[in-house]
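Need tokens for this chain, all 304 residues.
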Amino acid sequence: MQNDGTTPISKEREVSVMNGWLMLLVNFAVTLGGSLLVVRFAMQAAQHDSPHWLQLVAGLLVAILGIISSIGHFTLQPNQARVLLLFGAYKGTVRTSGFHWANPFYSRETRISLRSHNLNNEKLKVNDKRGNPIEIAAVVVWRIADTAQACFDVVDYEKYVMIQSESAVRHLASSYAYDHGEENEVTLRSGGDEVAVTLKKELQERLGKAGVLVEEARITHLAYAPEIAQVMLRRQQAEAVIAARQKIVHGAVSMVEMALRELAEKNVVKLDDERRAAMVSNLLVVLCGEAEVTPVVNTGTLYT
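Here are the structure tokens for all 304 residues:
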């Protein structure tokens, strides 16, 4: 199988192997049988009988065969796999846990954990979509899905995951603004779930070449870089004050409108335009002012 016509892609083949306990008995019997032939030859030689040299050779070969065959025993824990290599050729992958036996000439250094791994990236300093320097870090939960790709398509799959994850996080940060985006624009700060989905998708595209399945990816740290953090904090505070003022003014106007309507409907007092303007001004000062309002008693009228 090839991805671009030139670069081969490995494909896992799951194979079954023999029961280790059964082969343990067989190997023990073979080794014991060969040893008995050698002992019998030695006893005949000690009694000065005519020993059968063929018996010695056969016993040695059988005993050696049993010893070599016993090397083929191996165990696998749950969520662990072994890639079978015979003189450099891939023969398959064993995923079943337990005590097994396989060809003793298979490579014994190709065990792979199928358990989930956590990769907690260090804080990276990058520029967001608007060019602002930010600090960002992410955690990636991954596991091996294809053992053949992990072993043969990359040099070191753990290092490959680490480098590609860092690259994906950098690309993600440069694709979104930290905050204060345009209308309905997703930002790193506000679009947590959507950003996480995008990060997971990009990681899967990158790490799929190594037979890795990305289970989860999320941003764990997000902040402005120290050199602009104070400036951005003041901007956020100013925007928060403006937003609060807008709500206060909107509420005050609604209350003034309600007060004038109630006065007119209940005929409490009839106000001309000038008196109505004065009342609106006073109410807005009372409702929007931050300091405590001190009432002033007017003994005259608005016209004197």
